[in-house]
Amino acid sequence: MVQGLSLSTLASSHNTCVCGSMPSWRKHFKLMRKAQISSERNCMRHQNVFVRGNPSMLRPRNIRVEAGWLFKGGDPGLDATSERSESANEDILIFFFQLDLATRVQYALNMEEYDIAQQLRNKLTEVEAEVIRQQEGKRGSSSKSEAQDKAISIIRLRADLQGAIESENYALAAKLRDEISKLEAESLAVSAKALAHENVNYSFRLGQKVRHKSFGYGAVVCGMDPVCCESSSWMETAQVEKLSRGSNQPFYQVLVDVHADPNLLVTYVAEENLLAPDQPDMGRFDHPYVSFLFYGMDAAGDFIPIKQLREKYNRPRHEIPFDPLDEEHGGDA
User: What positions belong to coiled-coil segments (predicted)?
Assistant: First the structure.
């Protein structure tokens, strides 16, 4: 459904001109965003646009969604919906939209629709620039740039301070000295934040199956941030301040198995609240976004991220290959 809507709103067909009054990519995205997936079954019809690989992942399936169940555990008054994240869901939809635009650009080029291809490429450039800006902010690149700006300001203030001392303007010198001390403290804090972002160690991988420690639902990791990047109101609702590691720990975007709760969809979970299975989990996992983000499953039951997703989070490819002998003998050695 995500692709179907974006295809129809970007250009109704390859014979339809998208010149002139074509809305901005944000308006297209808002249209796509409004068409939230009503059920996994509807979404599965369109799951063959981006993903290449395991054919079984691309085959539409009739899935009966079990009734949502009441999650138990955790603090009183806190349930799984407290970690549901609209911003994480929107981030994934923008990623879909970006892939869809790239697909349409290539299609237009193949059809020699060069004007349409250029317009779509322009929109793709806008989306990519916005995605890069968001990624840099999450990875601490903006903090690093801010630290550099503060360092330059400190150098300038020190030059002014020297000039004030030489001219015996001690009142100005005292004021400049205070400003320098304040900027030095701020620069140190920003540099520490940027360093922490660069050196973060994630305990979980893209595509890895996990289970929520408190609420018990099964999920798959599809995104990660070095620290909590949600709003203060979201953190208050999710009671992030009560976590033993607080907000300064990795947080993960996870897809929740629709059989646990078909309405939860995407949650944003602190690293300390996730558990990896002790044994390979080859069990069934269904979610409308799985076939957009992953090729299929490896021998441990984890999903294999598509190249674009790995590049988005700068993560290496990791998968446990199947043993041909196991496949030949039906898994019996």
Answer: 110-137
